[in-house]
Amino acid sequence: MDHDHFFAEKIAELKGEGRYRVFAELERIAGRFPRARSHRDGSVEEITVWCSNDYLGMGQHPDLLSAMHEAIDKYGAGAGGTRNISGTNHYHVLLERELADLHGTEAALLFGSGWVANMTALSTLGAMLPECVIFSDAMNHNSMIEGMRHCQAEKRIFRHNDPRHLDELLGETDASRSRLVAFESVYSMDGDIAPIGEICDIAERHGAMTFLDEVHAVGLYGPTGAGIAEREGQAHRLSVIQGTLAKAFGVVGGYIAGSAALCDVIRSYGSGFIFSTAPPPAVAAAALASVRYLRRHDEIRVRHQERAATVKKRLAEAAIPTLPSDSHIVPVLVGEPHRCREASDVLLAEHGIYVQPINYPTVPRGTERLRLTPTPLHSDSDIDHLIESLCSVWKRLALRTAA
Ligand SMILES: *Cc1c(COP(=O)(O)O)cnc(C)c1O
To answer: What share of the chain is helix, strand, coil (3-state, %, to 5)?
Structure first.
């Protein structure tokens, strides 16, 4: 078999369906967020990023940069080992304490990424709990799906954000088995929000544990940035809150927060925690600075919500079709993969606006979109330019407008 020929055919399939991924090659400019230099076809241009998950621009915040510089100067580049074998730095411990404090839990546990945190925690729980059945929201992120798949626990999928369906499925399961409900707070592609209180009511009624991914909410919601569960006064009811340090917190890494016993079990049995080198101390130091900063600065969250609301309002006035979103995420609907890529290409090449096309399998076919993430650092004139550019592209490509 000619393996390279086989691989080339697999890639041709993706290209035929308009879902071959092309990465924008960027140099983000510290101090000038959301500006970046974009490398394309041998030339370099300055552009404005409209699709960053560095939702608040914390990745360039002076507090974080100085914490990171200081930690590098003190401790060097890498952690030097797994957490168990010489790799636990003082900053890892401080960060875990801060995260537990943020979520009001007894403990927290740090991972190399949010993906690894979900994968490891869910697969460990699913394998360890006796006869475990995991109830999973239909729109859950890949990292949770991989965790559930890996442990081979029975999985039952409830309709997206549908507590009644969850109730039904839980009712059909033998009450002697362990049950775990896995869901997200803010869903990252539609920007809709789970009814956390109702889901907790049902889980409690059936004696099930709850696992909430707050990746798109930590730093962003609740008076101290602990997420939607904090905003809705539900945090104490969840067995596990999972988050990332890579999105609103602007660095990298993932974590879970929960009881001391639960975190100790994942620490002691979770392969993705045990067998992987600890994150660099400088990463932990920067993440710690970010969490501390955002706990004290609610005004940045207020400004973030205002920017998102302004973009949504301006898009509605311009008849650019959007999906209804309850959060800071603004999905602009194109509905066809090739045109979605084309719209993105024209925005970048001719308007200096970077927004990545989102196609299947990240979103269902027919709902291909441009996912805008306004930040507190996008100015009024950035928004004006965005709306004018989208109108021009919509006209030129004859894309569907809102009725
Ligand atoms: C991005 C994401 C993750 C993974 O987090 P990383 O820190 O980027 O690995 C987990 N869950 C959801 C819902 C995400 O969008």
So the answer is: 45, 15, 35
